[in-house]
Amino acid sequence: PSTIVINKDPWSLNDDAKMHISQGKIYVNDLIISQDKQRIKFDGILSKEDDQLSVLFNNFNLTSLEGITKPLGIQLKGALDGKVDFTSVFKNPVASTNIQTSPIIYNEIPIGQLNLNADFNPTSGNMLIDLKLLDQSQRGVIVNGEYNFYDEDGPLNLKGTLKETDLIIFQPFLKNLISNLKGKGNADVDIKGTFKNPKITGLGRFNNAEFTVNYLNTHYYVNNQTALVENNAIILQNLNVRDTKGNTAQANGLVNLQKLANPYIDVDLSGNKFMILNTSFKDNSLYFGTAFATGI
To answer: pLDDT, tens digit, for every residue of 108-133?
Structure first.
């Protein structure tokens, strides 16, 4: 059989697949690529007009996605099964999905099993989305709602829920701001706007959370505290924070995550002998040391 290489691994193509081209259309029937126990099957028609390609996954290893996830700082382990139906592949591709996974290991942390159903209605342009990433205790992430492909200004209309979710899943997206993120999060949010420019609003609560502020190299603890999220900005109102010496402070202000690569921070701290700097010469040659502050 023929072979192709995906993420440095050889995959075999079956010999009995059928493919032919007629009047500008590519017909694919029973094309299977496999690698060890993994199997992906393709059936359908590809063209510049109305087309549909069905892709069936069986025991697909999530580590095969490393080419996509590794640059994001994400490592996945687990297996995926299900079906994805693509339409308008060469123009504006849309995918309806029905997939499930085994328990997923995310950066060495178990985060639960994924169930995703997304049904596209070509008449209305709406895709109904139902996503659950939950462990056996029903802790994790739930997202449901719709995405309208015909609405260019605000296609997203989703509701998201965090239930005792491990905050570490957000670490890769906040790596420019904080590190060593741990703890649990609960939240109810609305997600509007577009995928490129989402608008997230809601309320979140953090339990046994801790993190390091990269620029200051200071490690902080936050337990049983609430924060408002409005248009991607986390609004802090008398948020109690503890440093590694056990000193506490109250934080007020906002952290705007609209641009994750360069977040805007405007936070005031009110405390007594609270650690605000813990850097070495190696961290920052311009100024370094350990500093504590009292007052506002």
So the answer is: 999 999 999 999 988 888 999 999 99
Nearest to 174 by CA among 233, 231, 257: 257
* Spatial CA neighbour of 195 closest among 236, 149, 263, 243: 149
pTM of the prediction? 0.85
**Phi, psi torsion values for 70, nearest 5 degrees:** -60, -45
User: What is the β-pairing status of strands 140-148 and 109-121?
Assistant: unpaired
Q: What are phi and psi for residue 173, nearest 5 degrees? A: -90, -15
286-295 long-range contacts, CB within 8 A, separation 24+: 292/247, 293/269, 295/270
* Alpha helical stretches, state H, 146-197: none
Q: Please give the helix or strand (H or E) that residue 77 lies within, else none.
A: strand 76-77
- Which two tokens mark 16? 């009995």
Which pLDDT band holds residue 296 (cuts at 50, 70, 90)?
low
Query: How far is the C-alpha of 30 from the C-alpha of 21, rounded, in Å?
Result: 15
- Sign of the four-CA dihedral 230, 236, 238, 239: positive
- Structural tokens at position 270: 């009110």
Q: pLDDT tens for residues 28-66?
A: 999 999 998 999 999 999 888 778 899 999 999 999 888
